[in-house]
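Write out a record, fold above all:
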Amino acid sequence: MATTRGSAPWRDLFVEHAENMKPPEFVLSTIRRIPAASASFGINDGHGFRFVPRARTCVYRGMWASIPVNPKNDAELNPDIYEADMLTFTTDMRMDKMPELWEDGAVAAGGDALEGNGASTSSGGGGPVEAVFWAKEPMVQWRIRGKAIVVGPDIEESDDGRAAQKALMSRMRKKEGPSDDQWSFSREVTAHFGNLSPGMRGSFRNPPPGTPVDSPVDDGLGLGQKVTDLQDSIARKSFRVVVIVPYEVDRTDLSDPERGRRWIYTRTTDQKTGSESGTGNWEKVELWP
């Protein structure tokens, strides 16, 4: 067993593998809690609900606070002040998976969020997730387990937004250079929006995902739109950045068919304070594959 401080021991290799994937797709797994009466399978929680699995393909958008450089992105970028071991992807807040990204992500039959779930309007989250990457060329599988933090337009304005900021800041490491008052969460979100193509930005002006095609559609919504305005009010209302905060990383290297290898990295707490910090510990153990 090995223990390291500072940057996670898996970070550099993971970033190398993920950035070389074309496209950098991964499977995101979540847990959905639904009324037992509407579920034909799942684990009963003893309170009239069942936990059922959900999975979908997402696109890796870089590490939080280290957004990939896109020369076509006109958004103002944050100064290079922070580093973090947290993955990002972008999503539409109207997607069916959103309630599952909240720690209290129970949903009623038909998909309506139960009271106490702020998934439709605010930043927050805390729901458990697993991201699975298969880097084909090096023959390495990455399984990253942790919790999701959703970053929305209220990130610097609401109590939920400030709580999400605090959760992310606890995992961000300050670099040498400009003072951190020059770094903005909302600027980071806009930079992620700007990193998308106009067509992809336009998808946030689509009709609500998962609704019947004969349902009434609000003005301004429609398929095939292109968005060049980084502050487009309709698209930005639905746009979210999701940050995966890892607690466990499982790496399996199958490049040698006669000697597969596997390691698991586990995030630990500060032994003196019992709390986490951006320079927390990671324990590494080699396992049989």
About this structure: DSSP finds five helices and twelve strands in the chain.
